[in-house]
Amino acid sequence: MNPTLSIIVPVYNVEDYLTQCIESVLNQKYQDFELILVNDGSSDSSGDICNQYANNDSRVTVKHKDNGGQSSARNVGLDIAKGKYIGFVDSDDWIHYEMYERLIKHALIHQSDIVACNFQVMKKDGSFEPYTKYAEDKEYNRKEAMAEIFKNEVLTFSPCNKIYRSQLFDKVRFIEGIILEDKDISYKLIDVSNKVSYIKDSLYFYRYNAGSTLRSAFSFRRLDEFKVQLDMYNYYKHKYKEVADLVYYDVFDIGSYLYSQIKKSGEDSVDIREYNYLIEFKFDILTRLIKNKQISIIKRLKLLITIISPKLWIFLRILKDNFVQL
């Protein structure tokens, strides 16, 4: 008989944290699951740790593969998953022992296609705080969830604090070879669901990683951010026009940030004109956003400066970044 839940853990060079992660899954109060460990070409002892657990626990399956990145590893896990629901855990994180019991129970009671919970975020000093202060459980239909997910506030881009009905992945997979693959897939999965639930309790623990791409010094890999956000805007523009302008704000914000970082780098080999596409703003949308009451005063001021003089806004953005570094 197939398990109710398949839990997929992509593994890459996490020997210091992997045992804690796996133990937190195997010690779940809810027991009707399979654990799929996808070793993504680790060069440390992570693969051996996976094998040890697979040899000692019939619920554990290990898949070893060449390194292809987190999206590739998750997709391999999806290919072999047998559960009615899918969950993901990052291999340097861990989960509350009641997390999957709570999520599965909520899904069955409310007939939810996706159930998310709040999560605890580790800060630089090792302490924790909840990601969101939103204090109520909430049920969303598809349209409501699509109007929430792009904010990354209550419903978040991460797949790791959630369970998904497995059929949602029939036509939707993680894009491989990019950063922000979580953001890219988040709204697409919601758009093929009918009901999304949120549980206010923090049941997932996210470990602080100073070396992540988004926390490290600027690199040109981060240009993926703009493409992912622009793809999101174009998706909303065609299917959810009523909130598409709000999605476009982040196209503006990410584009101006990336352009300012490239310009600030001052690399002789870089022709800044190649990146003008990052600041080819749609001024009609910026004008509408200034009048939108859902946009904060600070954001409206940024938009107003940009409409008056895009060059001034880029100058001020670089100035702000330099000041923060002092």
As residue ranges, the low-confidence spans are: none
The CATH fourth-level homologous superfamily of the largest domain? Spore Coat Polysaccharide Biosynthesis Protein SpsA, Chain A
Question: Rounded to an integer, what's the Rg over CA atoms?
Answer: 21 Å
* Total count of domains: 2
Distance between the termini: 60 Å
What CATH calls the topology of the largest domain is Spore Coat Polysaccharide Biosynthesis Protein SpsA, Chain A
CATH hierarchy class name of the largest domain? Alpha Beta
Regarding quaternary structure, how should these chains be classified? Answer: single chain
Total number of β-strand segments? 10
GO molecular function: glycosyltransferase activity
Keywords: Glycosyltransferase, Transferase
Protein name: Glycosyl transferase family 2
Domain Glycosyltransferase 2-like: 6-172
Structure description:
- GO terms for molecular function: glycosyltransferase activity.
- Keywords: Glycosyltransferase, Transferase.
- It comes from Alkalibacter saccharofermentans DSM 14828.
- This protein has 326 residues and is an alpha/beta fold.
- The protein folds into two domains: 5-206, Spore Coat Polysaccharide Biosynthesis Protein SpsA, Chain A, CATH 3.90.550.10; 220-325, no CATH class.
- Helices cover 43% and strands 18% of the residues.
- It contains eleven helices and ten strands.
- Helix 6 runs parallel beside helix 7.
